[in-house]
Amino acid sequence: MQFRKALTAATAAVAIIPIVVLAAFEWRSVLSEMDALEKRQRMTAERIAEAINARLSSALELMLLAASELPELSSAEARNRTLAHIARAEPAFLNLHFDTPEGISRGFHPLLNPAGVPNNGVDHRGRRHWKERRTDAPYWISASFEATGAADERIVNIGAQARTRSGELAGFAVCALDLKKFAALAAEYENPGDAIWITDSKGGILYASRGLEAAPISAFEALIPKGIPTAPGPIPFKASQGQKVLEGWFAETGLNGDWRVMAAKPNALRQMELTGIVLRSLFLILFVLGASGLAGMLARRPIEKALFKLQSQVAAARPEPLSCERIHSLSEFEALQAEFGRLMKRLSIAREEIESVNRRLADEVARQTKTLRTQMEMLSRIFESLADGLLLLDQEGVIVWTNQRAERLFAASASVKILGSAAGTLFAQCLQAGNASPDPEAVLSGGTHRLQLRSASGERFLDITAFPIEGGDRFAHGVLLHDATDAARMESLKENLIGVVAHELKTPLAAIALSAETLANRDAGWSEEFQDDLLQGMRREVGALQQLISDWLDVARIDGGTFIIQKRIVQLKPIILRAQKRVRALGPAQIRITIEPDAECVNVDPDRFLQLLTNLLSNSVRYRALERECIIVVHAEKKHSELLLSVSDNGIGIPEGEERRIFDRFYQVNMGMRRRSGGTGLGLVISLAIVRAHGGTIEVASKPGVGSTFTVRIPY
Prior knowledge:
Elements: H1 2-69, H2 76-87, E1 93-99, E2 105-109, H3 128-131, E3 139-141, E4 145-147, E5 150-163, E6 169-178, H4 179-189, E7 195-199, E8 205-208, E9 235-241, E10 244-253, E11 259-266, H5 267-317, H6 330-385, E12 389-393, E13 399-402, H7 404-411, H8 423-430, H9 440-444, E14 448-453, E15 460-468, E16 477-483, H10 485-520, H11 528-560, E17 568-571, H12 572-582, E18 590-595, E19 601-604, H13 606-622, E20 631-639, E21 642-649, H14 671-677, H15 683-693, E22 697-703, E23 707-715
Parallel strand pairs: 18-20
Antiparallel strand pairs: 1-2, 1-6, 3-5, 4-5, 5-6, 7-8, 7-11, 9-10, 10-11, 12-13, 12-16, 14-15, 15-16, 17-19, 20-21, 21-23, 22-23
Helix pairs in contact: 1-4, 1-5, 5-6, 10-11, 11-15, 12-13, 13-15
């Protein structure tokens, strides 16, 4: 009986602990739920306000863009296309139009109204947007109102002044926004049980939660308590709506802060949620208490049986007889436990001593093995992490170990076996034709030797440096392999650059010096016409030097990774016309321009795109056929989400097999044409960099004596 009472008391004591912990946890959950409710409502109002403001800002930016572009367009067709292009950027646009200062529409999207009547040429002076226009501000936003002819469609107008580059008022760019699209923003953030309202500057309801459209609320201000100071972010409030008490937050939005968003929840619903949390907590506490009592009752009998069995085992191990009566108290259990512990300790002493010796021996072996393995792995990682290749040779000069970098270097040169090969034989097998194989003894004696290797991708250069390994039984020498291809090419490029620079600078400087010397001879009596010709020639040579320096700077930016672009939406045709004007002085040429309607506006860096077009057009003019008129065709269209721009000519063409070399630095078709054209050989290099910076590609198709076509593809 004493044991049963003790077990019951212990079970009760154990049950109290989780009950207290659970009660504390549930109370914390109640506070957390209430705090989370407040945060959700505040975040709902704030997020809806931010989303509405972002959409309105985007729509306003598009209208300001339209107001800056439309005055520069001379025809209604061009304005209609521009408005259609802008309308695709914002789904909430119901219509966009351009009105003259007299109120007559001279550009419209869509072109027809719902009745099928053209919208252009309509007098808007009686319309609401015309009466609300602002001449003292760059833009305005109207209050919401029911659209004409659609009583169930509530809209908002956004207008912007359209002025010419000289600052004269050319009219107004106006759009109508579908507020149903903004209502969808509120629905995305709405939580179950919340009441959401959005109102405009006149108190008109732009959006209300489902079931609240007919709620007795005429203006949002009726829900705002008096005396709340204006503060950034959402503001808390508590107000009545009929028999309901609402608690929540409101936030101001709209570009002028004259729209408001309210997120609230009835107090009755809050109390229901709180009551649910309390009932749940009480149920869990009662459940834990009942489960603990039941567990104590079920566990008592197995424990008694286990103790009786333990008592019998101890009695069998003792030399003197021990009574095997049932245990009725905790003191009897403690004595039995102590006796059994002493017996098991004596029986395990011998086994523990033997196992201890075995463990020490096994630990020492494992430690030594781990140390050796760690050292080998570390050396392997060090050798494999080398940027250069590594060969280890035996006393006979045979390769017995190599890292992966060395295997890749030789794999690019020839399909040869590395391990087991003599170093001298390996080098001889991979050498470029016409190069002598180095003496293996000379290589192993020290110093650095450069080998020119054959490769499928072109010639490669390899610097080999040997060093002795002292005290090694297996390894006698090590050989470091360094890929010097880039360094060799850079040295060659530097030499080529020095030659080109000296040549390109020498010719114009000599011409300038000769002209200056001629002009300096004041006693010669040169005519003004002759002196003007000399000055014009000096200007041309100075311009050539400036172009040469500009091209070299662009090449330096390409090599340094600082060649960047800044894209924006611009019209393509003015850029082509500017490029045409720049190449006019290079020679006579007829340039034909065709631009499809969907390619009139492009998203590019206008300055770099002008440079690209200038290079392509100047290439066609410089390499024209002298026996016939030079005709250049520039065509632009949108195809498969890409801007497709082609420049075709009827010039001399490119020799077969040299299409890929024209994008190499300083390459020109032939020296005779180079002297005639005066180019630097860097124009197509820079053009390729411009196209790649836009994420596009450039291709060339040419036939000698017929002409060439350069095709540029840029993601739209």
